[in-house]
Amino acid sequence: MKKAILIVDDESAIRDMVRMALENADFDVLDAASAHQAESIISEQTPDVILLDWMMPGISGIDFARKLKSDSKFSHIGIIMLTARSGEDDRVRGLDVGADDYIAKPFSTRELISRVNALLRRLVEPLASETIVGGRLILDTERHQVTVDGQTLMLSPTEFKLLHFFMSHAERVYSRVQLLDNVWGENIYVEERTIDVHIRRLRKVLEPYHCDIYIKTVRGVGYRFSAES
User: Fold this and answer.
1) Which of 9, 73, 118, 137 could form a disulfide with 188 if both were Cys (CB 3.0 to 4.6 A apart)?
2) Is the peptide bond before 47 cis (omega within 30 degrees of 0)?
């Protein structure tokens, strides 16, 4: 079955260019000129990935991404931000609200397709059916669910896969590059800085349950998962 991609950008020229590239790559393509229009489309047909412009009239892309990722019905949708804002602070802000990737304008359609495919692999790649216990965390790959004391955590697909890797390799230290290769996959465009952002988001989800301390920073090396007291 073809994967569905939703383009949300107020510039018709951008939408037309991206649509042509995606259709040539054998994707089903939907498009919207605003976040409001995109909401109507999503309510009828849930896309696999949204290509979302940051700066739009009305609801901005950043606010729309935050809204989607906070809604359990849509939090599983992959989001790639498309924006002319290429500073590191802007990239971090986009990732902080839940975007899975970030592409600065202008961009090549070849790179865009590569990023979409890389994100889709992360979203749909099956994990072995298992239940992993780490301290008070219980991760169930079959249900794609993480619970703490019976409470289900709201995790994005990338955060789930990152936590799964950590819990499957507890007590081992991994560098940012190793985490990128194992969680995001080799030969992808994601920057090492992305790891820090996703770990910060993961810790934020775990913090109310005092489980954020399970993810240790090993200064000068990387990160380690340890549920030992």
Assistant:
1) 118
2) no
Backbone angles phi, psi at 146, to 5 degrees: -125, 130
Q: Are residues 74 and 13 in the same domain?
A: yes
pLDDT in tens, 66-120: 898 888 788 889 999 888 765 656 666 666 777 888 888 888 999 899 989 988 8
Nearest-angstrom CA–CA distance, 119 and 113: 10
| Residue pLDDT, tens place only, 203-223 | 999 999 999 999 999 999 999
Whether 75 and 141 share a structural domain: no
3-state secondary structure of 169: coil
Which range marks the domain in which residue 35 is found? 4-124
Same domain, 39 and 117: yes
Q: Nearest to residue 141, comparing CAs of 119, 125, 118, 120? A: 125
In a shared domain, residues 144 and 89: no
Q: What is the CATH number of the domain that holds 110?
A: 3.40.50.2300
The answer to whether residues 164 and 131 touch, using CB atoms and an 8 Å cutoff, is no
What does pTM read for this prediction? 0.68
**Rounded to the nearest 10 degrees, how much is the dihedral formed by the CA atoms of 40, 44, 45, 50?**
10
Band (189; pLDDT cuts 50, 70, 90): low
The enclosing domain of 154 has a CATH number of 1.10.10.10
